[in-house]
Amino acid sequence: MLEGKRLLLIISGGIAAYKCLDLIRRLRERGVHVRCALTRAGESFVTPLSLATVSGEKVFRDLFSLTDESEIGHIRLAREPDLVLVAPATANILAKMAAGIADDLATAVLLATDRPVMAAPAMNGRMWEHPATQANVARLAGRGVHLIGPEEGEMAEADEWGTGRMTEPADILAVIETFFAGAGRLHGRRAIVTSGPTYEAIDPVRYIANRSSGKQGHAIAGALARLGAETTLVSGPTHLPDPVGVRVVNVEEARDMLSACKTALPADVAVLAAAVADWRVAKPAKHKIKKDAAAGAPVLKLIENPDILASLSTATAGRPALVVGFAAETGTVVERAKRKRLAKGCDWIVANDVSSGVFGAETNTVHLVTAAGVEDWPPMTKSAVAQRLADRIADALEGVPATPTS
Ligand SMILES: Cc1cc2nc3c(=O)[nH]c(=O)nc-3n(C[C@H](O)[C@H](O)[C@H](O)COP(=O)(O)O)c2cc1C
Asked: In which residue ranges of the chain is pLDDT below 70?
């Protein structure tokens, strides 16, 4: 499965750098062609000679090397591999990646690459838990960087325990194998994903909205694209970066979201994760509504918005083979989701309890409701939920003829 794959391993300056020798050996045993790029700090932990010996390749270190630049160049180094892996990934290199800094060979390559990127963080537990590092990894995950670990355990510093150990080479290898096994499973498929809230105008400056951050929907679009689906993300207003490899259509109101979804048809799968406003103001004011003590507070008449999930699920022409809805519920979450699946005519519902702290959070606890029953998934990060859902979608579409595009 890994035979003939090309991997660029970027080694930054952490104590776990010695483990990458074992990782390279395991990768080469499976026929992977490994090239190494080493940061200046990385050289203090593992020697270029050891890396060159184990990888059987020249090791790249200097952005301004005339010979390296004329022979291969940092752009080719960035574009040639099937996968770029940063292991160990220091707090420093994660921060630079998140900020788009390119002040050495490793970070210039990371900014220039259009290949999938994985990172295995390794650092002291306090560094890992620091809000700056957490914000950086959240940003990277949002952009489609696949994070492996870190694990909990004993730290390099005597008597310290925490989360920050680099995932063991055998486990990193397993993640890489799973990645390559899945890559391309949705090749030739088209996907539509909706994400974020909708904004429904009250007047030119005010609107009705909800607390959806769009994190889950964006992660799903990224995961489907990583499996090879040609993915359109129809997104309400969010503060998130566009997921890598996804065509993004930005909308504000529910009616625009529906029409963007219809324009994106035909598709094999639609995942409708947006928190679409159920109602909009019947007649939004053309001018800003002024405070008027005599008239009192304005009374807003609300009317129902179109139901995007029901509309795509019951479309007579061009219905996607698989329509997946989301149910953000409080109370009897699963029972409500079961009823919603039947009422809307969709195939699956991903149900989550939003009574406490899901909006904007990095983790989610969901139940997958299908005709076959209910699966309770354990709590996991939103990117892990996205990956698992994308894998399930790929399983479900196996053997189903691809939707013709014209
Ligand atoms: C002995 C020693 C061990 C270190 N281990 C780590 C580590 O495990 N993780 C980390 O993020 N930084 C670690 N650092 C700090 C990094 O080496 C430092 O932030 C450096 O600037 C990283 O540069 P780079 O990201 O370009 O490789 C360590 C420093 C020393 C002196």
From this structure: 158, 356-360, 405-406
